[in-house]
Amino acid sequence: MKLFVFGMGYSAQVLAGRLRGQGWQVRGTGSAGDVDFGDATAVADALAWASHVLSSIPPLREGGDPVLEAYGGALQDCRAEWIGYLSSTGVYGDAQGAWVDETAPVGAGRRTARAQADLAWQALDARVRIFRLPGIYGPGRSALDRVRQGKAHRIALPGQVFSRVHVEDIARGVEASFAGPAGVYNLADDLPCSQNAVIEEAARLLGLAPPALLSLEQAALSPMALAFYAENRRVANGKARRVLGWRPLYPTYREGLRALSATTSPASASSAPVPASSDQR
Hints:
CATH architecture: 3-Layer(aba) Sandwich
Largest sheet: 6 strands, parallel
CATH topology: Rossmann fold
Radius of gyration: 18 Å
Order of helices and strands: EHEHEHEEHEEHEEHEHEHHEHH
Low-confidence stretches: 265-279
Distance between the termini: 22 Å
Strand order of the largest sheet: 2-1-3-4-6-10
Mean pLDDT: 92
CATH class: Alpha Beta
Number of strands: 12
Number of domains: 1
Structural class: alpha/beta
Strand content: 15-25%
Shape: globular
């Protein structure tokens, strides 16, 4: 089996490592890949070689998907049996804390370019699987790293909740879809909760005092982080469970942080929950 990845980012590299351990061959673009995205001949050769194709490249800020714009026709013509796209639950916008599933409307939130790309990938081909991802965490990208660095925040926003997913569970969900039908799937853990709860658990595991509780203004967050806190939703994962047989290895942040605390993780440069749209997946 042969996987070609547009954008060998954080999540795609975890998936690649998992598949290589099972005997897969994996190629991709990006700094961790072996194919130049701008070399149309090399990309065409990789598409002809691949049995599975995944894109983890986010849309352009001004709109438009770089992969579809450059290689949409080639993707439609390629013989790969499976095509996947790593999207974001940001396409749902603000649900005021309500649950959203794959039938919820998209395009009303801050991720308008992401929503347009999500829909464009759905329209591309009948082989396409869309994976909508919430805040991604894992080795080097978790609340543990931010607490260690003194960059974690607890913000007084009663009722504010986020969904999140461990990067290993993204890889396992994508893998489960290889034998499942095309469609859109949310890959999120079972316990949406406040970011404060996650930071407090990370501090407990590290034996450190949690950071002070601040107002949103006192926290002086970046514009990206402020936009992240402007939306409030719970992401349902029932379809991936029912249709793909996927079960998160880390059903809540507690199991995920506990596993990460047992290993030595490289320091993360992030100071906010890692949005699924910012890491080239």
